[in-house]
């Protein structure tokens, strides 16, 4: 079995969560929270990995839009 991504966590009930730490400089500059945490509402590992990857891409696109070029 392959390892789950670092941003994928399972709670004590077996439900997967997406958790990602936002860099401190970005938090301070834009007034964001330090961590993004969202329930994936599934106990299926493969489905959770797919959902978490989608969320990570969306979050990275949002973060890139916040940063000046």
Describe the structure.
With 69 residues, the protein is α+β, with helices and mostly antiparallel strands. Helix content is 42%, strand content 20%. It has helices spanning 24-30, 45-66, and strands spanning 8-10, 16-21, 35-39. The protein has a 3-stranded antiparallel beta sheet, covered by helices on one side. The mean pLDDT is 88.
Features:
alpha+beta, 69 residues, three-stranded antiparallel beta sheet
Structural class: alpha+beta
Percent of residues in helices comes to: 40-55%
Largest sheet: 3 strands, antiparallel
- Please report which band the strand proportion falls in: under 5%, 5-15%, 15-25%, 25-35%, 35-45% or over 45%: 15-25%
Shape: elongated
List the helices and strands and how they pair.
Layout: E1 8-10, E2 16-21, H1 24-30, E3 35-39, H2 45-66
Antiparallel strand pairs: 1-2, 2-3
In short:
The protein has 69 residues and is α+β, with helices and mostly antiparallel strands. The protein contains two helices and three strands, in the order E-E-H-E-H.
């Amino acid at each position: 079995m392959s390892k789950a991504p670092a941003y994928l966590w399972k709670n004590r009930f077996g439900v997967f969560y997406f958790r990602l730490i936002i860099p401190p400089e970005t938090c301070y500059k834009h007034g964001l929270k330090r961590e993004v945490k969202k329930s994936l509402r599934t106990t299926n590992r493969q489905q959770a990995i797919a959902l978490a990857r989608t969320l990570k891409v969306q979050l990275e696109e949002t973060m890139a839009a916040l940063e000046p070029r």
